[in-house]
Amino acid sequence: MTGGLLIEADGLGAVRGERILFSGLHLSLRPGEALVLRGPNGSGKSTLLRMLAGLSQPATGEVKSSGAHHWLGHRDGIKPHETPRQHLTHWARVWGSTLSPEGIAKSMGLERPMDVPGRLLSAGQRRRTALGRLLLVERPIWLLDEPFNALDAEGRDLLASLIAAQLELGGGVIAALHGDVPFGASREVVL
Amino acid sequence: MRSPAPIRAAFGQALAEAWAGGAGALLPIGFFAGAAMLVPFTVGSEANQLAAIGTGVLWVALALASLVSMERLFQADLEDGTLELWAQEACPLFLIATAKIFAHWTVSGLPLVLLTPLIGITLQLPADQLLPAMLAYGLGGLAFFSWGGVAGALAASVPRGGLLIALLALPLFVPTAIFGALAAEPGAVGPNILFLAASTLFALAVAPFAASAALRLAVD
Question: Structure pTM?
Answer without folding.
Answer: 0.91
